[in-house]
Design a protein that fits this description.
four-stranded antiparallel β-sheet; alpha/beta; Aspartate Aminotransferase, domain 2; Aspartate Aminotransferase, domain 1; 13 helices; seven-stranded mixed β-sheet; 14% strand; 2 domains
Length: 391
C-alpha cells in the first residue's frame, strides 16, 4: 500500500510511458493522459497471478463459481447492488461491451444519445458501427456540470433514439450523478423505450465518503432496460488483463448481447484475468481505501495549487474518477495553440479536451492516479510555462 513510491514503468511496453518516444514527446514530459495508474496492484492480486504463472500451462480457461461470487459479493457489500451469476456476461473490456451493445440493440442509421463532453470511445463505437450520434450536452455551471433534462427528452423524442450511453461516474467532468438527477433520466428512457448502457467502470472512485448509485437501482423498473458495465480494471490497475463484467437483468437484452458476442467470438477470459479479478474483489477493499485517500490528496493539492499559483486556469469539481478536468480558456489560446503549448512548453502529456467532443475545447484532462510527487512536478511545470507565456 505504498502510494508514494515512484515506479519506473519505462521499457515495459507501457502505452502511457513508452509511447512518448514513439509520439515524439520532448524529454522530461510527464504522462498524465491515458487512464491507468502508476501504482502497483494489491499484493493479493500479485500472489494470485504468481500462482497462475507457476503452473506453466496457460490454456483456455473458464470463470469458476469463486469468480462470480467475488464479483457479486463486491457489488452487494459496497453498493447494495444484487445480481446473480447468470445475469453476468463477461467481455474483454467496457469499450468492447459498448460496441457490442450498439450492434445488439440498434440497427444501422439508428440514433444513439450521449452527453458530451464524454469518454471519446462512445462516439467511436457509434460512428464506426454506422449509427448516428445525438448529443445532449452537459451544462457547465461554474465548474460543476449538470444535465439538461428538457433537452434530453426533446432529443430522444425528435430523433427516435434507441440507445442512451450513460457515463456514471462521468469521465471526464468528474460528476457523480445523484438519484434526483438520474430518476428523470430513467423515467424518460422507460417512457420512450430507450435501452440504457451505463458505463460504471469508475464506480469505486466516488470520493469524499459518498456512495455510488448504480443506474439500475434508480427506479423499480430500470433493470428492465439497463445494461450495467463494470470492471476491476480501473479500480485495481488491471486494464491490461482484459476483464469486464456486464450485468443485464432483462433476459431478452442479455440474450441479444450474448448472441452478438458469440458472432464476434470475443467473450473468453484469460486465466490471469480470472485470478486477478477474483483476488481483487475478495481482498482489495483495504488497499482501495488507501488509494482513494491518495487520489483525494492529489485532487486537493492540484486544485489549491491552481487557485493560488495559476489563476488563469480553473479545475472543475472532482466528485468521482481520478481524472481532473481543467478549464484552460483563461490562457486566451486557440484550441490548436493550447495543444502545442501543452506538448512543447508545459511538457505534460494530457488528453486534449476536444477528444471528448467540441464542448471540451480549451480543456485538458489530467490523470491524478500517480504519486503526489508527480502531481507536484506537473503543477510546477504548468505554472512555469504559464508564467513564461504571460511575460
Amino acid at each position: 500500500m505504498n502510494f508514494k513510491k515512484e515506479i519506473n514503468r519505462r521499457n515495459t511496453n507501457s502505452i502511457k510511458w513508452d509511447l512518448m518516444a514513439v509520439e515524439g514527446k520532448p524529454e522530461g514530459t510527464i504522462p498524465m493522459w491515458v487512464a491507468d495508474m502508476d501504482f502497483e496492484s494489491p499484493k493479493e492480486v500479485k500472489k494470485a497471478l504468481k500462482r497462475v504463472i507457476s503452473h506453466n500451462v496457460y490454456g483456455y480457461s473458464f470463470a469458476p463459481d469463486s469468480y462470480y461470487n467475488a464479483v457479486t459479493g463486491w457489488f452487494k457489500r459496497r453498493y447494495d447492488f444484487e445480481f446473480a451469476k447468470e445475469q453476468i456476461v463477461t467481455t474483454p473490456g467496457v469499450v468492447t461491451a459498448v460496441g457490442v451493445a450498439v450492434r445488439a440493440f440498434t440497427e444501422p442509421g439508428d440514433a444513439v444519445l450521449i452527453q458530451r463532453p464524454v469518454y471519446y470511445p462512445f462516439s467511436m463505437m457509434i460512428e464506426q458501427n454506422g449509427r448516428r450520434i445525438v448529443n445532449n450536452p452537459l451544462i457547465n455551471v461554474e465548474g460543476r456540470y449538470v444535465m439538461d433534462i428538457e433537452d434530453f427528452e426533446r432529443k430522444i423524442a425528435e430523433n427516435n433514439v434507441k440507445l442512451f450511453i450513460l457515463c456514471n461516474p462521468h469521465n471526464p467532468v468528474g460528476r457523480v450523478w445523484t438519484k434526483e438527477e438520474l430518476e428523470p433520466v430513467a423515467n424518460i428512457c422507460e417512457k420512450y423505450g430507450v435501452t440504457v448502457v451505463s458505463d460504471e467502470i469508475h464506480c469505486d472512485f466516488v470520493l469524499d465518503g459518498k456512495k455510488h448509485l448504480p443506474f439500475v437501482c434508480v427506479t423499480e423498473n430500470a433493470k428492465n432496460f439497463t445494461v450495467t458495465c463494470t470492471a476491476p480494471s480501473k479500480t485495481f490497475n488491471l486494464a491490461g488483463l482484459q476483464t469486464s463484467n456486464i450485468v443485464i437483468f432483462n433476459r431478452d437484452l442479455r440474450q441479444a448481447f450474448a448472441d452478438e458476442i458469440e458472432r464476434m467470438s470475443i467473450g473468453m477470459l484469460s486465466p490471469m484475468g480470472i485470478a486477478a479479478c477474483t483476488a481483487a474483489y475478495e481482498h482489495g477493499e483495504k488497499w482501495l481505501k488507501g488509494l482513494k485517500k491518495t487520489i483525494e490528496g492529489n485532487r486537493d493539492y492540484m486544485k489549491a495549487y491552481i487557485e493560488e499559483h495559476i489563476p488563469e486556469l480553473s479545475m472543475c469539481d472532482l466528485e468521482g474518477t481520478y481524472l481532473a478536468w481543467v478549464d484552460m480558456s483563461g490562457l486566451a489560446m486557440t484550441n490548436d495553440e493550447l495543444k502545442e503549448f501543452m506538448v512543447k512548453k508545459v511538457k505534460i502529456w494530457v488528453d486534449d479536451g476536444d477528444m471528448f467532443g467540441p464542448e471540451g475545447e480549451n480543456f485538458a484532462r489530467f490523470n491524478l492516479a500517480c504519486p503526489q510527487t508527480t502531481v507536484e512536478r506537473a503543477c510546477k511545470q504548468l505554472e512555469e510555462a504559464v508564467l513564461a507565456k504571460m511575460r
